[in-house]
Design brief:
α4 runs parallel beside α5. By secondary structure, this protein is α/β, with parallel strands linked by helices. 41% of the residues lie in helices and 14% in strands. It has one domain: P-loop containing nucleotide triphosphate hydrolases (Rossmann fold), CATH 3.40.50.300.
């Protein structure tokens, strides 16, 4: 392995991402990742949600460390969220953001079930057979695509959820774990930061 070599990761491919290291390097790396995402994706195609509710670090320190995010249009609520910015610095805000994301995930699952049933019915009518189920993250073999996750029917906008340390109570930890596992199918990608 080579030390200190940049690595690229397509969140639509990997689903979720974990970053770990000493605090100063970790926050610098996280800032770089978020700045690149914000520069390359408009607020119409990407929203950024921060959950920084780890009580092991003072609130003032967490606020100061992430205050720059408030300038990004990607942290302004555009999907009916009940907040001014998509920044959660306490457990109440973390719970609210996690619940909003879980509702969106559930809505996506319900939409997929409805459209999947219609697609299977149409395919069965057209071929006389039931359509073969593809995994939700399947991609065309030739790598072609228009930037949408057509295999799962997701067209955006995408959400990147940055979780800095312990996200809060057990309910929020469970929500984050579920979002990391199931969220990519609904365009929700978790980036977890762990200080070492």
């Amino acid at each position: 392995p080579l030390p200190a070599v940049p690595v690229t990761a397509d969140l639509r491919e990997v689903g979720a991402l974990g970053l770990a290291g000493p605090r100063e390097r970790l926050t610098g790396l996280a800032r770089s990742v978020l700045a690149q995402l914000a520069a390359l994706h408009s607020a119409d195609t990407l929203e950024i949600v921060l959950i920084s509710a780890d009580r092991s670090r003072p609130l003032a320190e967490r606020n100061a460390e992430w205050s720059w995010l408030g300038w990004l249009p990607q942290v302004r609520p555009g999907l009916g969220q009940d907040c001014r910015l998509l920044l959660a610095h306490d457990r109440e805000q973390a719970t609210a953001r996690a619940q909003e994301l879980l509702r969106r995930l559930e809505d996506h699952h319900a939409d997929q079930a409805r459209s999947g049933a219609r697609a299977r019915d149409a395919a069965a009518d057209a071929t006389g057979k039931t359509a073969r189920h593809q995994p939700s993250r399947a991609r065309p073999a030739d790598g072609s695509g228009d930037g949408t996750d057509s295999a799962c029917g997701f067209t955006g906008p995408y959400t990147v959820v940055v979780v800095d340390g312990d996200p809060g109570g057990a309910d929020v930890r469970e929500a984050v774990a579920r979002l990391a596992l199931e969220g990519p199918r609904a365009g929700i990608h978790v980036v977890c930061l762990a200080e070492t």
